[in-house]
Amino acid sequence: MIWLALFVTLSLWWLFTGLALISAHQRPPIKNLLFGLSTIVAIGCIASVPYISADSSLVAVLFGFLFALLIWAWLELMFLMGVVTGPNKSLAPQGLGVGQKFKQALATMIYHEVVVISVIGLTFFLGGEQPTNPIIFYVLLVLWLMRCSTKLNLFFGVRHFNHGWLPKSHKHVASYVSVGKNSALMTPSSSLAAIFAALLFSRAFATDDTSVALSLFLLAWVAALAAVEHVFLMYRVGEEALWRWAVKSE
Q1: pTM, 2 dp
Q2: Are 222 and 139 a contacting pair, CB within 8 Å?
Q3: Does a structural domain hold residue 248?
Q4: Which listed site, 46, 59, 115, 178, has its alpha carbon 20 to 30 Å from 122?
Q5: Rounded-to-10 torsion of CA 170, 226, 13, 242
């Protein structure tokens, strides 16, 4: 199960990241069309939560994982395409204190964070009181927690960040990213992600239920990839080569 989970996680992570980058850098008419289509897909995936949560088969686990990533891709596009962001559209002013700068940085995305939390809460509610297969909710929760860690590190300081991945309309967001030196938060946050992944792997190896094991392995690889993405922020490792086919000038 561990290798199946690795193949599925790596493949979908690479593909969906690339497709999101392609979509976010299109002209407005194409962006609107792509976001409309992704919204229809996301609504279908959310509507499937009660059925996926009640089915503990291996197929349901895999489809639940796919649906969770499709929902997450839609949420990411919502921000990258500027559909839902935050009230602050201005570049970071010079000379701000850390507290004030943090408030303004949060204001660039706060509406989107509310939507993300609401969607995650909705999947929890739709899953019922005792879901046998809560894979969609847990994948979204792990992705959100790991993204929060990434955003905090971007604010407080990272050694490497590829600004070219953000659309031109998000220059104000990039102005709140501190590049040059890793903050004190980077090592403990990446270590926590790795430890969390290790705990999930341990639980997966300990269970005799193949569906539960597959769910745990999938979650573990998601957490492991989050730790790897933290490494991308700590060191220049040439990760942009993975999605060179997806990033083109607008």
Answers
A1: 0.94
A2: yes
A3: no
A4: 59
A5: 70
